[in-house]
Write a structure and sequence with these properties.
Elements lengths: L19 H12 L5 H4 E5 L42 E2 L14 E5 L5 H33 L1 H4 L15 H13 L3 H24 L9 H14 L2 H46 L3 H27 L7 H10 L5 H13 L4 H28 L4 H23 L4 H7 L12 H28 L3 H24 L8 H8 L3 H6 L17 H22 L4 H7 L4 H25 L3 H4 L3 H4 L5 H11 L8 H17 L5 H11 L9 H25 L15 E6 L4 E5 L2 E5 L9 E5 L7 E6 L26 E4 L13 E5 L9 E5 L9 E5 L10 E5 L9 H20 L2 H15 L10 H4 L1 H16 L1 E7 H7 E3 L6 E3 L5 H5 L7 E8 L4 E4 L2 H10 L6 E7 L7 H12 L1 H7 L3 H11 L10 H20 L4 H11 L15 H18 L2 H6 L1 H7 L5 H18 L7 H9 L12 H6 L4 H46 L5 E5 L2 H10 L10 E3 L2 E4 L4 E2 L4 H7 L7 H9 L10 E6 L3 H28 L4 H122 L1
Antiparallel strand pairs: 1-3, 2-8, 4-7, 4-13, 5-6, 6-12, 7-8, 9-10, 10-13, 11-12, 14-19, 15-16, 17-18, 17-19, 20-24, 21-22, 23-24
């Protein structure tokens, strides 16, 4: 979100919200005449949005655009094998994801093409030439020719005297005698206009490309791109970048700081020498005093900056700066050199120059200005004095102008200014105004002193100081101090210092700020100044008897001073009207949103904010104000950079009847509330949507990578060859991922960083033509279990040829020769013995040991900016931002009706819940209801909903792990939201929903999050901000007001203000003392003060229904505080104990809460001691014990206070008595339970003493037989015999609480008469096809067993209760240990008896089975003998059958012989028949011949 997102105009030229002229102007402003998208910027594809609903979906344009690295595999191309593509494709797919919608982010940048750069240079050159011509001819030559005659009659300003008050004469003399003959003007004018012309030409040609300001993340993107190109053009651009960066930084250090200070100091020393030459020792001494005072103030500022928390200043730097401080200000030289070596502005350098400018220059300029008027000096020395005064005016004007800068205002007047840049129009106007103001002040005092000397100026300054002081005190007492969150006199003491520079120099307050909190309002101050000037003129006129000639004689040679006074005063009055009416703003209302999130507000800023919030709206009801804030808040979510004017217009358009009743104060109030609420919600949104699974080293296009093989060697470019060598951190071992023009979005190039050649293969391995050795291509196919959208660093891949000339993967083989051990060569091996080799892509560092100077500088900038961006984007930093924003919006210790969080308790509550998440280990995610239902399941052991094992990717990015418990989710609607936290409601809603577009914020309890490094850093950050978080805790008034609206019962909800307040205090206290030990004491005391516990008598009456639970919740907090306090604090810091445990508050509350818990414990049926009471007794021991938890330390801390000592003794005595009574009760109960355990053990032994007899029934008939032998009370009437032997004696009872009877009839205790009759009746039904084992024992077996079982269950329940007692009362550990041992022995004895009985039953079952098997074996033997007899008879029958078969076979052979002979006879007859037929045919032929002969 740190990326500056700008809407990119579409192809039709519509970029600014309209067509026609507006669209053309927008297009021209952005691209200029020659700029275009291709050369002007590029599209960077942002991370694909999660399936959660984005907050500002309507802000940015969303287009269907193919990402550089698509989320789907490309379709198989049948023609791909014939192509010879010179590209590398990396296969990157996210599991289960389809096409994703990406966001086009347009980064406006200068063209990087060589032709475009030349064209831009030509445009700038043409503009510069045109500007130089206009500057030289239009400003120098032409005016000089026109004014040549008039200038001959005009004298210099120094000779004009009092006539310099005439504006036209003054301006004419200034031009003719100073500007026109000046060589500096003739050189500077063409240069300045030439620079403006170059800027204008570049602006018209390429729009905002060369003036666009980038943030850190955008700068990193461009630097990485230029670093990776390694071309002449990129090197040239980097050199220009370095030159611009170095020039700006050098100008800030050398010119703005060192040169300005050195020249000013040098001129002061030179003027002091002039004073000595003319024996003006008073002027010399006063000027020297000013220099010394400036150095002393600088030393004081050094001390303040060095001792402030978080200062990055070493002792050596402070030592050398202090050593060089007395050496004529050489500390500025030392700090300037140190800044140049460090590459960043040293924090002490700005303080040094500002202190010198405000105090030393102010002092010296007054002395030197008066010296010019008072003394008669030669023209040369007077010119030096004028120059020194002018430099002082510039230095002072710049110093006071920095009050309206962000950093300067925060350092000087504790209010960040509105301006961010020294080249902004507002700052330039303020700079000119401040120079005019200090010039008017110094010259007016000097001229007044020249008239009224020797005491006129000093008397005037004294009266002025008295008036300004009185007005300041009166204004702040009536209008400011009541809004400051600190005591009034402390606020006075901190800000009264600003009266001094306001009296001597300028108004010491931001002139662009409409309100004032450190001095008088600007209109009052400048009204006093105007009246004072009028009074000075009146007194001077009276002193000179209103004679103009006397004034001319007095100021005959001081025309320059008189002119300076006239011009500066006139300009000051004009500019102050312009600034206050047109340029002034309310910094908290009109400044960007970062004013709320950068730093915590100081008391002055809180006073300014509270003054706005105190404005009473003109509307009669609060609902209209709330509605206006809501409307404006929704608009800010769409357009965060709305100005105040646009905010007012939007509200007026959406609310009817506003303009007539809406004053300026109400507008500021509504805008302020809306901006603060928006900042808080944005900070909460950042925490809510934080991506925990985001990998900082994910590989994208244009990423820098190194490729290592499984053999541990790295691909290295050596000329035109790619070999494998050991890692050397050189540029030839790094490659750049580049996109291609291929239709396949997965096709990427791997280009060597050093040479710019593509990663290639050897040509001689193939017969194909057309492949150059240096540009052969590869195809990378991912081979990993987890597939992600963008290739992650460390992923293993196989490399294949992109042209599909071979399907073999790439391998590496050792080279032949001397370098065989070190060098490996790449080969595509078709041999089946080679299975290919995996390569690992790793994120490479943007710094190589062989980088050139400019590339090394670029790598350093990338590293520095990346560290800054990573720090800003961490979860701990976002947590800090939320605390800062909320603390700035909070109104504490001030009675304000329209507090931001006070008017929006829902926002206050949600914000506190976000702050509590690291301590609760809770994670929140914005998700649709449908997806939430798919992502959770019902837990196995408990009634809860947990995240599934197959956690979706966007859930993983939010830090949700499988098994995390779903605590609640909040359905978001257009106007309201509904919270659901009951298990059945959540399960029902998520189960029934099929397809829903509703959005919810789901809260998960994540145990894994507590173990992460991110969570530890967040808790550390929270502990560091304890004081700020304490200010955010809700007061009892806010809690009561919220409870009245929602119902008193809501106070006890986990996410209500009161509960969250208690949990925050507990978490911060425990973590703070754990991290900082006794160093956390002061913060803990402040946190406890803000927590403000109340006993029963002081609680609001609204809480009567829940007063007991409120007391218990506060008791938990006090217990956690006492538990976390280190022993050294309890023993050696009684003042801390007195602040944390007061007799009338905390001790009284503890007494009330403990009484409530004891009553609940005694009234409970199961004697389960409440957990809160257990924790109290475990951490608060009686005063008689010697332990860190003893209340003796509380008694000792209050021992010296005689008034409170008795109260402390009484309450500690009462708490100790409760402890002792509970301990004694547990002792008695433990002894009683021990006796019960022994008794239960005896009952069990008695019940299991006699051996259990069993009867096995293998059929319903046998069960019927046993039924006849049993009476209705299940007692044997006769002996049960088997084969004449007695198995069970009469009088034995059927066991019903075990065995098959227990399973069938579910008998848990000894059955009554009705159950016995039912069992007797249904006894035959026990047979289910298997043997039935009936157990018999004495008559009272079931009864004794049931009694033993009941006793054992009661004792088992007591065991869980007793463990809590051991934690609270270690003295009963031995007694409870014996009781618990007895319970365990009873459980073991019962288990052993059951196992013994089961063994007996098993033995009897086996014996019965053995008998049955023996019977079966006898019958089987008999059947076997019968079968053998049958086999013998079968053998005899078989022999007879064989004999019969032989005779049959013989007869069959005879028959076959007869058949054969018959066949032969038949064949002979057939032959004879054939012969007869042939004879017949011959006869017929002969007959036909005879007939023919006859004819």
């Amino acid at each position: 979100q740190a990326v500056c997102r700008r809407k990119m105009p579409d192809a039709g030229g519509q970029g600014g919200g309209g067509g026609g002229c507006s669209a053309c102007l927008t297009q021209w402003d952005q691209f200029g005449a020659f700029g275009k998208k291709k050369t002007h910027g590029y599209i960077r594809v942002a991370e694909p949005p999660s399936k959660s609903i984005p907050r500002n979906e309507t802000i940015h344009e969303r287009e269907e655009h193919a990402p550089l690295m698509s989320s789907q595999l490309p379709a198989e191309d049948p023609n791909l094998g014939d192509s010879q593509s010179r590209e590398v494709a990396v296969d990157v797919k996210e599991a289960g994801q389809g096409d994703v919608e990406v966001e086009n982010i347009f980064l406006l940048r200068p063209p990087r093409d060589g032709c475009e750069i030349c064209r831009a240079a030509l445009c700038a050159l043409l503009g510069a030439c045109l500007g130089a011509f206009v500057g030289f001819y239009g400003l120098c030559q032409k005016p000089a020719m026109l004014m040549s005659q008039r200038c001959e009659t005009i004298g210099p300003i120094s000779e004009m005297g009092f006539d310099a008050m005439h504006p036209s004469k003054l301006m004419l003399s200034l031009y003719c005698r100073t500007v026109r003959p000046s060589l500096a003007f003739k050189v500077a004018a063409p240069l300045l206009v030439s620079a403006a012309g170059a800027y204008g030409g570049l602006r018209l040609a390429y729009g905002r490309a060369y003036i666009e300001q980038w943030n850190d993340e955008e700068s990193i993107i461009e630097l990485k791109k230029l670093y990776s190109l390694r071309s002449c053009g990129s090197k040239f651009v980097l050199m220009c970048w370095w030159l611009r960066h170095s020039s700006i930084f050098g100008f800030q250090v050398i010119v703005e700081a060192w040169l300005r200070y050195t020249v000013d100091l040098g001129m002061d020393l030179q003027v002091m020498g002039i004073f000595l030459q003319h024996h003006q020792f008073w002027f010399f001494s006063l000027n020297l005093l000013g220099i010394i005072m400036g150095l002393l103030w600088t030393a004081h500022e050094f001390y303040l900056r060095f001792t402030e928390p978080g200062a990055e200043i070493t002792h050596a730097e402070v030592f050398f700066a202090g050593m060089t401080l007395p050496l004529l200000g050489q500390h500025v030289t030392y700090l300037s050199v140190l800044s140049l070596l460090r590459g960043s502005l040293h924090p002490l350098l700005f303080v040094s120059t500002v202190a010198e400018a405000i105090l030393e220059s102010s002092f010296s300029c007054f002395i030197q200005t008066y010296a010019v008027v008072f003394t008669e000096l030669p023209p040369e020395q007077k010119s030096e004095l004028y120059f020194s005064v002018f430099m002082s005016f510039l230095s002072i004007g710049y110093a006071f102008s920095t009050i309206d800068m962000v950093q300067g205002g925060r350092i000087l007047v504790k209010i960040p200014g509105f301006c961010k840049s020294v080249i902004s129009p507002r700052f330039c106007v303020v700079f000119v105004f401040r120079i005019c103001e200090i010039t008017s002040r110094a010259t007016s005092l000097a001229l007044f002193q020249a008239v009224t000397r020797p005491y006129g100026m000093f008397l005037l300054i004294a009266v002025d100081a008295l008036i300004i002081s009185c007005v300041t005190v009166l204004f702040q007492w009536c209008c400011v101090v009541k809004f400051a969150p600190i005591p009034p006199f402390t606020f006075f003491r901190q800000n009264f210092f600003f009266v001094i520079p306001s009296v001597l120099c300028c108004h010491m307050a931001p002139i662009l700020e409409k309100d004032s909190a450190i001095s008088v309002p600007p209109w009052v101050y400048y009204s006093i100044r105007l009246l004072e000037l009028g009074g000075m003129v009146a007194v001077a006129g009276k002193w000179l008897d209103w004679k103009l000639d006397a004034a001319r004689q007095l100021f005959a040679d001081d025309g320059f001073i008189v002119a300076s006074f006239a011009i500066s005063t006139l300009l000051m009055l004009v500019l102050v009207v312009i600034i206050r009416t047109c340029l002034s703003v309310r910094s908290l209302v009109d400044s960007p949103a970062d004013v709320w999130s950068n730093n915590e507000f100081n008391p002055v800023q809180h006073a300014l904010k509270n003054r706005i919030l105190e404005v009473k709206s003109e509307w009669p009801d609060q609902e209209q104000t709330t509605e206006a804030v809501s409307i404006l808040l929704k608009e800010l979510q769409r357009h965060p950079k709305l100005t105040s004017k646009e905010c007012v217009e939007h509200v007026q358009q959406n609310m009817k009847g506003v303009s007539g009743r809406w004053n300026r104060g109400s507008r500021d109030l509504i805008i302020l509330r809306a901006r603060a609420s928006y900042s808080i919600k944005e900070a909460m949104h950042d925490l809510e949507n934080y991506d925990f699974a985001k990998v900082a080293s994910s590989l994208q296009t244009e990423s820098l990578v190194s490729i290592s093989s499984s053999q541990g060697v790295y691909l290295t470019a050596e000329g035109n060859q790619i070999v494998g060598k050991k890692c050397s951190d050189s540029s030839n071992q790094k490659f750049v991922l580049e996109a291609t023009d291929s239709e396949d979005p997965q096709t990427l190039k791997l280009k060597c960083l050093e040479s710019g050649q593509l990663l290639g293969l050897e040509k001689d391995g193939f017969k194909g033509e057309g492949l150059e050795e240096s540009e052969a291509t590869l195809f990378a196919q991912q081979d990993a279990q987890e597939m992600v959208h963008t290739a992650k660093a460390g992923v293993e891949v196989f490399l294949h040829h992109a042209g599909r000339l071979t399907t073999a993967p790439m391998s590496m083989v050792q080279s032949d020769g001397k370098e065989a051990v070190e060098a490996w060569r790449l080969r595509f091996v078709e041999d089946q013995r080679y299975a290919g080799m995996t390569f690992r892509l790793k994120q490479a560092k943007y710094c190589s040991q062989d980088d050139a100077g400019v590339f090394k500088w670029a790598a350093g900038e990338i590293t520095k900016l990346a560290a800054s961006v990573q720090r800003q984007q961490s979860f701990a930093e976002k947590y800090r931002t939320l605390v800062v924003v909320a603390c700035n919006a909070r109104t504490v210790d001030v009675e304000v009706e329209s507090g931001i969080l006070e008017q929006d308790p829902e926002l206050h509550q949600n914000m506190l819940c976000r702050l509590l998440q690291p301590f609760r280990n809770e994670k929140e995610i914005r998700i649709s209801v449908e997806e939430l239902g798919k992502s959770v399941e019902v837990g196995r052991k408990e009634r809860k909903l947990v995240a599934k094992k197959e956690v979706e990717s966007y859930l993983a990015r939010a830090g949700i792990q499988p098994g995390d418990k779903l605590l609640m989710f909040k359905l978001l609607g257009e106007d309201a939201s509904v919270k659901i936290d009951e298990f059945e409601q959540m399960r029902q809603l998520l189960t029934d929903v099929k397809k829903s577009s509703d959005t919810a914020i789901a809260t998960f309890l994540s145990e894994a999050y507590a173990k992460t490094e991110e969570s530890k850093q967040t808790i550390k950050k929270a502990v560091e901000q304890t004081e700020s978080i304490a200010a955010l805790l809700p007061t009892w008034q806010e809690i009561t007001k919220r409870a009245e609206k929602l119902g008193v019962e809501t106070v006890l909800r986990p996410n209500f203000l009161f509960r969250v307040k208690c949990e925050l205090v507990k978490g911060l206290t425990s973590a703070g003392f754990h991290l900082h030990h006794k160093g956390f004491v002061q913060l803990a005391m402040h946190l406890h003060y803000r927590f403000n516990p109340l006993p029963k008598q002081k609680l609001p009456k609204r809480f009567d229904a829940v007063v007991e639970d409120v007391l218990i919740a506060q008791l938990e907090v006090l217990v956690s505080i006492w538990q976390a306090l280190p022993r050294v604090v309890k023993e050696d810091m009684p003042e801390v104990i007195q602040a944390l445990f007061r007799p009338q508050v905390e001790l009284e509350l503890m007494t009330n809460a403990v009484d409530v818990l004891v009553n609940r414990w005694q009234a409970s049926k199961n004697r389960m001691m409440p957990d809160e009471l257990v924790d109290f007794f475990a951490n608060f021991k009686p005063a008689t014990e010697d332990s860190p938890a003893s209340m003796y330390w509380i008694v000792k801390a209050w021992q010296a206070d005689k008034e409170s000592n008795n109260d402390v003794h009484e309450r500690v005595k009462h708490l100790s008595k409760e402890y002792q009574d509970a301990e004694e009760s547990w002792k008695k109960e433990a002894e009683e339970k021990l006796k019960q355990a022994e008794k239960a053990k005896l009952l069990l032994e008695k019940a299991t003493a006699e051996k259990v007899r069993s009867v096995i029934c293998s059929s319903p008939a046998e069960l019927k037989k046993v039924q006849e032998m049993l009476s209705e009370d299940l007692v044997l009437k006769v002996d049960y015999k088997v084969d004449g032997k007695v198995k069970v004696l009469k009088g034995k009872s059927l066991v019903c609480t075990a065995g098959v009877v227990w399973k069938k009839f579910n008998i848990e205790t000894a059955p009554d008469e009705e159950k016995k009759k039912k069992i007797h009746k249904d006894l035959p039904k026990l047979y289910t096809g298997k043997n039935v084992h009936l157990m018999f024992n004495k008559l009272d077996f079931d009864k004794q067993g049931a009694e033993a079982q009941a006793a054992q269950e009661k004792l088992s329940q007591y065991e869980s209760v007793a463990k809590a007692a051991v934690k609270a009362f270690p003295s009963i550990k031995d007694i409870l240990g014996e009781t618990l041992d007895a319970i365990h022995k009873l459980q073991i004895g019962k288990k052993e008896s059951e196992e013994k009985r089961q063994r007996d039953l098993t033995v009897r079952e086996l014996e019965k089975e053995k008998e049955e098997l023996q019977n079966q074996l006898g019958s089987a033997k008999k059947e076997n003998a019968d079968l053998q007899n049958q086999v013998q008879s079968a053998k005899i029958d078989n022999e007879e059958n064989q004999n019969q078969l032989g005779s049959v076979k013989k007869e069959n052979a005879d028959l076959q012989n007869q058949v054969q002979s018959a066949k032969k006879d038949n064949e002979e007859k057939q032959k004879q028949l054939q012969q007869l037929l042939s004879v017949k045919e011959e006869n017929e032929k002969m007959l036909k011949q005879i007939q023919q002969l006859q004819l």
